[in-house]
Every structure is written in C-alpha cells, then in structure tokens.
Write a structure and sequence with these properties.
The chain is α/β, with parallel strands linked by helices. The protein has five helices and 16 strands.
C-alpha cells in the first residue's frame, strides 16, 4: 500500500495551506522555470522576459537557429514564430475558433500551443466570468468552458492541464480520470490568479490574494495522480471537507496526489480529509 504524504504549512483557526511533498518534474526545456506558462502576447519590436523562453521552444521545434537567446523580439524571431504557427496551424486554429494567418504575432492561440508543449499535454481553460464561456465550447482560452464540473467530466488524459481563471465556483470538483506517474492531470489557477501574498498571522502563514474560489468539495476519492494548485477552498456544506482523498477497499486509489499552494479554510468538516493512509 502506497502512503500519501503531505505537509500542512499552516493550521490556524480553520486555515490550512497544504503543500505536497511529492516531487514535481522540472521543465524539459533548459532555462525555462518549472510551471512557467505564456500569459502575455508577444510581437515584433518590444523586449520582454518571455521572449527568451519563446526562443528556447522555437529552437527546439526546429524553427529558429543561429541566434542569441535574448529578450528582444526581432525579425528572425518573427519568421520563426510564423514557422511554428504553420507547423501547428490546425491546433492553434482550434484554440481560437477560426483559421489563423501565420502572422508571427504571439496571441492567445499561439500561447495555448506553446503552453501545451511546455506542460506535456493538452491545456484547457475554465472561466466562469467570461461572457463567451460555455460548456459547449472547445475549452480553449478564447472559447473557455464555463464550469469545473464540465472540466472534471471531460475525457482528460494523463499530462493534461485545466487552467481555471478568476471567479467563484459554487460547484463540486470530482475528476473522473486519473493521471499517471510523471504525467499528472492538473487543475490549477490560471497564472496570476493563483493564491498569492504570504502574510504572517500570529506567527503562522496565510494568503491574502485569492482570485479563484471554490465553495464546495474537491473529491479525489476515486482517482490517482491528480494535482490541485492555487485555489482558495472554503466549503461550508454540512459534513463535507475541502479536499477529500480515500482508498475504497481494494481499488487502492489516492496515489500520487499533489495539493500545492492552496488556501483551505472554514470548511464544515476537515479542510483536507484523507482516509486509510492518512496525512
């Protein structure tokens, strides 16, 4: 039986911040920080830190060579981006909802494909406050899903990532599919919307800037290798905790669960409840 190991970095007056001790794999691209995603549009001319990481991927994709990896977006980089857009035109067009022109501009569709490559699987988006959001959408950044429920019920595969944008989600998150060792299925707050702002409350650590709030339980009882990251979870439903992990008899679920940088508080039951192997 595999033991699930977590550490609670703060437990105070119903506040729990949980960080998993399970190691997180580093980026396959040297020099790109683990967990980095492209969130800014990039274009010819201006300098930007993300351009260095963009060039790293373009070189790896065979679209760029013979340049220094600086933060300047020049003509060679523009041509390389056009090469990348031509290479992944079908996928980028699916993200945007229309057939793209390979212009060299790094917008939402191109960023989505760059992030897919970095994260090692498909990336989907949930944005409850987006007026264009709908569960009938393809789940791209331009056409995101509306609910966590739809994302959890979707046929996610190992290595896939669901990025959740700012908003309050009054729903239970119950993933239906498991990841695998080294290829987790990840539900995480969109970069910039994750829990931020560590402060000390009577000597204990808490969070003050939480843009993605889930008001019902995250239930991981029947899945393995799932990562939950960057959410505020405050479940006030009677007899429910914030995150629930359990092994059912001989099914041996609950392996490889990662709970990272979440602000979990004011739950009617345990903030994090793990049965059989404990926390």
């Amino acid at each position: 039986m595999e033991t699930k190991t977590f550490i609670a970095s703060c437990v105070l007056a119903g506040i729990l911040l949980v960080t998993a001790l399970i190691p997180v794999s580093a980026s396959a691209y040297t020099g790109i920080p683990d967990g980095f995603t492209f969130t800014n549009n990039l274009l010819l001319g201006p300098k930007a830190p993300d351009v260095v990481y963009l060039k790293t991927i373009l070189i790896n994709e065979g679209c760029l060579s013979g340049v220094t990896k600086t933060n300047y977006f020049g003509i060679k980089t523009l041509i390389a981006v056009k090469c990348f857009q031509n290479k992944y035109k079908a996928k980028i067009s699916a993200y945007t909802g229309y057939t793209i022109k390979s212009s060299g501009f790094v917008g939402a569709g191109t960023r989505a494909q760059l992030n897919n490559i970095l994260l090692g699987g498909n990336t989907y988006y949930v944005a409850t406050n987006d007026p264009n959001a709908s569960d009938s959408n393809p789940g791209t950044e331009a056409l995101p899903w509306k609910t966590l429920t739809h994302a959890a019920n979707y046929n996610l595969q190992p290595g896939d990532t669901v990025l959740v944008k700012a908003g309050t989600y009054n729903e239970t998150l119950v993933p239906q599919n498991s990841g695998t060792a080294g290829n987790l299925i990840t539900f995480m707050a969109y970069p910039g919307d994750e829990c931020q702002g560590d402060v000390s409350v009577r000597g204990m650590q808490t969070k003050t800037n939480n843009k993605v709030k889930i008001t019902k339980q995250i239930n991981l009882a029947q899945v393995d290798y799932i990562r939950i990251e960057g959410f505020e979870i405050a479940n006030t439903n009677f007899n429910e905790g914030g995150i629930y992990i359990q092994e059912y008899n001989t099914t041996l679920h609950g392996k490889g669960i990662q709970i990272v940088n979440n602000y979990i508080h004011d739950c009617r039951r345990n903030d994090v409840n793990a049965v059989a192997n404990g926390i």
